[in-house]
Amino acid sequence: MKGPLSPMEARKRLPLFGRMLYDVRPIDLWERDTRTLPWVFRKQRRKYRQFARRIILPLALDGDLDPESIDVHQLFMKSARMGFQTELMPPPVGNASIIRILHSILLGPALKAEEFCAACGGLGLALLAHELGMAPLFVSGDVRAILGWMRKIYKEIRGGQPSIAAFAITEPGAGSDAEDTRGAESGSPGCRARKVSGGYKISGRKVFISDGKVARWVTLFAALEGEGFESWTCFLLDKGMQGFSVGRSEKKMGQRAADASELILEEVFVPEERVIGPLRAGWAINRNVLNFSRPVVGAIALGIARGAFERALEFCRKTRLGNRPLLTYQDVQMRLADILLHIQAMRATVWQAVRYRLPFQASGSIAKVFCSDTAWKVCNEAMALMGEHGFVHGQGVEKAARDARLTQIYEGTNQINRLAIFESQEEAEFAID
Fold it and tell me: Quick one: average pLDDT of 323-350?
């Protein structure tokens, strides 16, 4: 809006102090939000966006149509050369700034997830899943695992090897049991570890494993022979182990560029030194990983929704109706404003979750549920705004809707996460004396 009643022009009539009390500069919300971050995160957020727009976005549509056309290892190494794949720990293990780690463990991963997935939910997930695979080494609190295995893997990556890690908990017919206390109490784990001389032999299957086909390393959870989920133990495996193979890769509705594969273990021998954390500590490690990862899933959903908004906004700028750009119609402006309102609420929810020095169950699940449900609504609204063009693959918005749907399912379905929210507050906030 221009003219004497525009905010910028009207402000000029105020004295200096009045002009200083509010900001009418034409700066978009992304930049305004970035400027509220500590300087180390401001710089990093701009790096993530630049990489996403320059490297990820040009591959997005091809990766969705034909996932096999994308060399994930090459993309991973481009990200690694920027330092984006060794950021969970500061030196001498990783390359994260100690200032960033001390300020917030999860803000960096959340910023990266939003930017990568605004470009492409599938390729973003393919790059982000490596940190999920590395997370058990970190959250186990096992110094041997951190200084030994974690540093070794990060050293391989810095040396030019695409040493991707994957996280393996889900089993056929027991997906939610691995993410819910009540389900696990009555569930029966299928992947089992049998004690043998010098280590364990593991047999079973894991399914829907992100990066399962392309990963070299796998943090895998298995129950000890004859016991239930309470005996879950974390093991570090690599693809070179005898008896370890990759089964089918799923043909998914969304986030198609990110591999989701079945892992098959037939009497795979795992030496003692590859047990991560204490025996029977796997359930605690798994739940802690989910506390770390769920706010990041919220950020993935946020990024997908923002990408849909940006594409819809560009469409409304370029498309004309009645010899006027769609963007000049007040109804279109109101619908875009509603979408932007939801995106800002999603970002506020994610940033609130990651501002805590240590993650906890309720905050992570709240961010995951709210953002994934809202992203699904936002993408559908963006499609509706674009009419028949919204359903055309080349526009990118229908892809965003398919990508958003998956965020309601992985890292625990939203139903399971709602139970997690209640469970975490049941003894504290909801207790009745």
Answer: 96
